Amino acid sequence: MPVPAPAPGAAAFTQRFSLEATRPSAAEIASLTGIVPPATPIYFSAVPTITRQEIIIAAVSLRKAGLEPIIHIAARRLPSAAALQEMLSALRSEADVRQLLVIGGDVDAPGAFSDALAIIQKGRLREAGIEEIGIGAYPEGHPRIPVGRLESALDEKIAAATAHGLRVHIVSQFSFSPERILSWLRRVRAGGISKPIKIGIAGPTNVPALLRYAKRCGVAASLRGLVSGVASGLVGHVGPDRIIEALSVAGNLGDVAPHYFSFGGTLETARYACEAAAGRHGASRAMARSN
Fold first, then answer.
1. Is residue 228 predicted with pLDDT exceeding 70?
2. Residue of 255, 135, 139, 138 whose CA lies nearest to 195
3. For residues 50 and 47, what is the distance between their CA atoms, to the nearest angstrom?
């Protein structure tokens, strides 16, 4: 299956960015409208303690602000199939949500759905008005799932979504290593997967916060690089400049774009993303100098 080469240049690579936000406040959502372009995709994280009503209110706020809400659905945390349908119905009717990010959700005792594939196969997403889904991928592997199983699961989810009339894109976990990201991307493309891929990148943040989120999310390999000399001189803020530079000059990667994890700094990450999209690179280093 042929994969088109991306448009050259860092600005071209960064212009179609998306943001992941964890419980953005109403004030943050309002402020985003003055920073990012209209219809920017904002992924709303499915943190374990969030309520259905909070998710719906946030989706409505994002839609009213002229942004594109993409809601995380964590399969194992859903208590029943009926709960999923109630959620989807409210999201569609109140916020015109048409896209989801379907993830497993790392809990030991699943509810009605055992994994993301079960949601895609049995969740009646298309009937609920969902047109496109994102599915997760892991350039550094997953602490609970063997690499071979991750690869086969990606194929299975794409096939199931396509069979149900859903468009598909892939969203990767964040990594601090351009080399690992590129190696994984090339392996995915060589395996015949040509779907759009959003590359998970940690937005600019301070080093202690970055280490905390890295440990929590299981990106141990590039975390070791961050603390063992590859980035031993970093102080203050660190950002995704190296990864953006590496991906923007690599060829034959197909349809790829950055997906920024904000780690609570939604507005700062949004500003960085817009600076990068405008071709003003080294933005995170500038932020570090100004803080």
1. no
2. 255
3. 6
Domain holding 210: CATH number? Answer: 3.20.20.220
Q: How many residues can be counted in the chain?
A: 291
d(CA 29, CA 67): 9
Q: State the total domains in the chain.
A: 1
Q: Is the dihedral of CA 200, 213, 155, 252 positive or negative?
A: positive
Residue for token pair 């609970």: 144
Residue 184 lies in a domain: yes
Residue 156, domain member (yes or no): yes
**Range(s) of the domain holding residue 92:** 10-277
What is the band of 213 on the pLDDT scale with cuts at 50, 70, 90?
A: low
Euclidean distance between CA atoms 174 and 214, whole angstroms: 9
Q: Is the pLDDT of residue 146 over 60?
A: yes
Phi, psi at residue 276, to the nearest 5°?
A: -65, -40
In this prediction, residues 183-210 reach a mean pLDDT of 86
pLDDT above 70 covers what percent of the chain? 79
Whether residue 144 is contained in a domain is answered as yes
Whether residue 202 lies inside any domain: the answer is yes
